[in-house]
């Protein structure tokens, strides 16, 4: 279940203490990634699984929840839509799709950043085998298609029918929204032309009367959301679905093809896990398997305020996996993740860095690409895939052994 947790969390304690500076943080994370897996773990599970959150996409111009300019800090009245509201209310859906119609342009125009590319490089270097993300922006898939991320909360690139579960590309859906809502389309084009949607400064956006929130949501005060129209599922329109009670569903549209409130089926929703919605069991199980098959967990740019993310870290902790967390500001229940840690350990058993991933991850990758001598030099993945590291590990991390 995806549940928002809007409190600002208490600030963290840096672990080890030397990780307060950028070089110190890089050194600690190097220790973490190079360390052999816990003694009781199979060597096959030596590599690290990464769990990412909204903070990783801030450098791409997208909003997060609790960062310096996060929605819960600059837009205190923000309240995301809940799944049950979306399903129950035509008015709520009009409001959601109107805001999403405006937000999609920014999301579509944004691109993965150096943080996503650093995650890609950690995979190529053999340190990371799996990525789990809470983000719905598809940036991991674009940055490293060879190591696809498990998308815990789904993705905005598609819509899904709540009756027949067919998925449709968001791009075509956007064109339908523009066709059904010509005045909104004019407003959107004007906003793009004036640059109102282009600025990355949330304060400037607010000055222009626009608020950007996570998940491609744009808020325009006083906007007539109630006039907004959205299309019905084409498959259900052609062949009405069977409802949960066995009755035939009714899917009706107006003269232009907009979903009519006389319908009781064929409603499209974004292919994201909305707040209050359960994560599909196959996704949940795949995420648990990724944790169970890993030797360490590296958490990036998330406060793990959603339970679905926090419970994965809890699972890692319960299974004895060392955990490293890089996030500006506090993380939900983080004291428990580092309880009992030797204060003098250099990072091999746990790291907590109160820093943005933007500069840190590329610096970490740069250091990991340098030759490292000694038996512990090769990344766990190199041992895994049988790369010969008997030559002292020199240059071993330059090999693409995937
Ligand atoms: Zn359908």
TrEMBL record:
Provide the residue positions that the database annotates as binding Zn(2+): 161, 164, 233, 236
Pfam family name, one: SIR2
- What region holds the Deacetylase sirtuin-type domain? 19-371
Q: Which UniProt keywords apply?
A: Metal-binding, NAD, Transferase, Zinc
Tell me which SUPFAM superfamilies the record gives. DHS-like NAD/FAD-binding domain
Keyword Metal-binding, does the record have it?
Answer: yes
| GO molecular function per UniProt | metal ion binding; NAD+ binding; transferase activity
In the record, which residues are listed under signal peptide?
none
Which PANTHER family has this protein been placed in? DEACETYLASE SIRTUIN-TYPE DOMAIN-CONTAINING PROTEIN (PTHR47651:SF17), NAD-DEPENDENT HISTONE DEACETYLASE HST4 (PTHR47651)
Q: Would you identify the family this protein belongs to, as annotated?
A: Belongs to the sirtuin family. Class I subfamily.
**Name of the protein in question:** SIR2 family histone deacetylase-like protein
* Protein's organism: Trichocladium antarcticum
């Amino acid at each position: 279940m995806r549940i928002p947790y809007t409190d600002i969390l208490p600030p963290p304690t840096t672990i080890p203490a030397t990780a307060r500076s950028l070089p110190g943080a890089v050194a600690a994370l190097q220790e973490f990634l190079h360390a052999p897996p816990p003694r009781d773990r199979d060597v096959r599970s030596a590599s690290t699984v990464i769990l990412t959150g909204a903070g990783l996409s801030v450098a791409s111009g997208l909003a997060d929840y609790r960062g310096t300019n996060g929605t819960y800090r600059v837009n205190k009245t923000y309240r995301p839509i809940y799944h049950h509201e979306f399903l129950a209310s035509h008015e709520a859906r009009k409001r959601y799709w109107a805001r999403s119609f405006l937000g999609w342009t920014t999301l579509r125009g944004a691109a993965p950043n150096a943080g996503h590319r650093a995650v890609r490089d950690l995979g190529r270097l053999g340190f990371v085998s799996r990525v789990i993300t809470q983000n719905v922006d598809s940036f991991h898939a674009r940055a490293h298609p060879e190591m696809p991320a498990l998308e815990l909360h789904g993705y905005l690139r598609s819509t899904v029918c709540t009756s027949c579960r067919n998925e449709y590309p968001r791009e075509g859906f956007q064109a339908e929204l523009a066709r059904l809502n010509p005045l909104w389309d004019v407003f959107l084009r004007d906003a793009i032309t004036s640059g109102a949607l282009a600025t990355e400064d949330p304060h400037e956006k607010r000055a222009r009367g626009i608020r950007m929130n996570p998940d491609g949501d744009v808020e325009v005060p006083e906007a007539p959301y109630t006039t907004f129209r959205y299309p019905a599922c084409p498959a259900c329109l052609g062949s009405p679905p069977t409802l949960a009670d066995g009755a035939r569903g009714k899917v009706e549209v107006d003269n232009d093809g907009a979903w009519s409130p006389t319908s009781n089926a064929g409603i499209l929703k974004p292919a994201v896990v909305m707040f209050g919605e359960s994560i599909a069991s196959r996704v949940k199980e795949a995420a648990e398997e990724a944790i169970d098959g890993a030797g360490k967990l590296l958490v990036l740019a998330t406060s793990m305020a959603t339970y679905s993310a926090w419970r994965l870290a809890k699972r890692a902790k319960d299974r004895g996996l060392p955990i490293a967390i890089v996030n500006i500001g506090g993380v939900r229940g983080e004291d428990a993740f580092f309880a009992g840690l030797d204060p003098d350990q250099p990072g091999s058993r746990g790291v907590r860095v109160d820093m943005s991933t933007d500069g840190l991850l590329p610096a970490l990758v740069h250091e990991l690409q340098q030759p490292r001598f000694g038996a512990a030099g090769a990344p766990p993945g190199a041992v895994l895939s049988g790369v010969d590291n008997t030559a002292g590990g020199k240059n071993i991390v330059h090999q693409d052994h995937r």
